[in-house]
Amino acid sequence: MERYHLTEGDSGKHDGRPVIYDGVAIKIYEDEDPSRILVQFTDGITAYNMIKKARIAGKGRINNAVSAMLAGHLERGGVRTPFVRLVSADSQLCTKTDVIPVEMIVRNVIAGSMARRLGIEEGIRPGNTIYDLCYKSNDLGDPLINDHHAVALGLVTYAELQEMYSMTEKINSILLPLFKGIGIDLVDFKVEFGRLPDGSLMLADHITPDNARFWDIRTGERLDKDRFRRDMGKVGDAYREIHSRLLSVSPFFGSDISDIRQMSGH
């Protein structure tokens, strides 16, 4: 993994680059290398399919750092991620894939939409890991689908789904003990996958407090986007806490952590 030394306050300026995706929380730009993209994490935050929007100061930099650290950890565990290297405090270079419009949600603890949909109390830990599929469509509100829907819609093949489940299970098995070691319960998270030119699949997503639920094991405090969804306040503090705890185990991440430390001022 290449290293790029950052200085505190260094932010990406990508004027002139063609924009591939102009989202509230993430912007994606073309790179000189057609096999790569530039991903910029912004301070924007949304909930309920863009109905609720705000800006959280410093969130983009935190998500960039958290994403990079977790990508490095997954790579060492044998999971291919899109992360190539850090480019600035809020941006990273990533491998370009043909993203499959299927979102996979991993649930280790009952929370959020599943609790509401099925009338189950939040916080219950099922005896099995639950995997949900959602069709990525803003117009339809990312509806819940099953394997057969995904294949019938031409989104994936059964063989690809099997591989996606296998990779997601591996990601979960790698991240659960990592977060437990820093006192965090990995409640659930979302991932997407993409196809490479040779047809193989790889993770095409970034795991951050924007798309995962992190609860403090001791207190049950929520340290993720639920604080924004539910008007709980201290959203930035929660994101910084996740960042800080991951930095606290920096020797485990290896020498490339120096980039993250410089970026965060640690």
UniProtKB/TrEMBL annotation:
One annotated GO biological process: cobalamin biosynthetic process
Domain SAICAR synthetase/ADE2 N-terminal per the UniProt entry, residue ranges: 20-245
InterPro entries: SAICAR_synt/ADE2_N (IPR028923), SAICAR_synt_PurC (IPR033934), SAICAR_synthetase (IPR050089), SAICAR_synthetase_CS (IPR018236)
Pfam family, one: SAICAR_synt
Pathway noted in the entry: Purine metabolism; IMP biosynthesis via de novo pathway; 5-amino-1-(5-phospho-D-ribosyl)imidazole-4-carboxamide from 5-amino-1-(5-phospho-D-ribosyl)imidazole-4-carboxylate: step 1/2
GO MF annotation terms: ATP binding; phosphoribosylaminoimidazolesuccinocarboxamide synthase activity
Top EC class for this record: ligase
Family annotation (CDD domains): SAICAR_synt_PurC
Transmembrane segments: none
Alphabetic keyword roster: ATP-binding, Ligase, Nucleotide-binding, Purine biosynthesis
Superkingdom of origin organism: Bacteria
EC number of this enzyme: 6.3.2.6
SUPFAM superfamilies, per the entry: SAICAR synthase-like
Substrates-to-products reaction catalysed: 5-amino-1-(5-phospho-D-ribosyl)imidazole-4-carboxylate + L-aspartate + ATP = (2S)-2-[5-amino-1-(5-phospho-beta-D-ribosyl)imidazole-4-carboxamido]succinate + ADP + phosphate + 2 H(+)
Gene3D superfamilies: ATP-grasp fold, B domain, Phosphorylase Kinase, domain 1
Record has Ligase as a keyword: yes
PANTHER family according to UniProt: MULTIFUNCTIONAL PROTEIN ADE2, SI:DKEY-6E2.2
Entry similarity comment: Belongs to the SAICAR synthetase family.
Protein name: Phosphoribosylaminoimidazole-succinocarboxamide synthase
Native species: Candidatus Cryptobacteroides merdavium
